[in-house]
Amino acid sequence: MASITMAYIPYNTDVGFLRIKQQYIDIDQWRVAFFIHVYASMWVLFAGFTQFSKRLLKSNPRLHRTLGYIYVADVLLITGPAGLIMGFFANGGLFSRIAFVLLAVLWIYFTAMALIKAKQKNFKSHRNYMIRSYALTLSALTLRAWKYAITNTVTLPPMDVYRVVAWLGWVGNLIVAEWIIRRKKTSLSKREVL
Questions:
Q1: Staple partner for 84: which of 45, 90, 104, 162, CB 3.0–4.6 Å?
Q2: pLDDT digit string (tens) for 123-164?
Q3: Is 130:114 a contact under the CB 8 Å cutoff?
Q4: Total domains present in the chain
């Protein structure tokens, strides 16, 4: 992801993904949203990753909270809204636009709920919402992985691949997140019975 981000620095508009977005590059809100999303997303990936370290939580709860606030502020105030704006301009027509707008809305919602639950000291729900939120954060990686897998195994027109990965990039992550949450819930229930 860092190498992908570096290609756009300081302000390159004819590299990578932007090569297929030239029809939108002159739309101010889209262009600003794109560069904000690209530059700020690295912080979300890093800060979110640290939130699942039990060792960090126990040894340095203050750092856990600080990185958590960086993650939440970035998603709620910067990358989430930027992703939402970008979603309305997604390639692939209405099918892709719905996928990316829904991704942004759920990402913002799960992150906001994680913050609310932490403030309420309901740490079990807080963790579950963070799992969901970070699963959607990771869609930046899984979307690219699915694109690579599909284009190297099946012959489809590029825009059809884009429409498919618009959904696969995050729906699969959310399914895995729900499985992790349910599994953890089941193992806790079994321990309580014993």
A1: 104
A2: 999 999 999 999 999 998 898 889 889 988 988 888 888 899
A3: yes
A4: 1
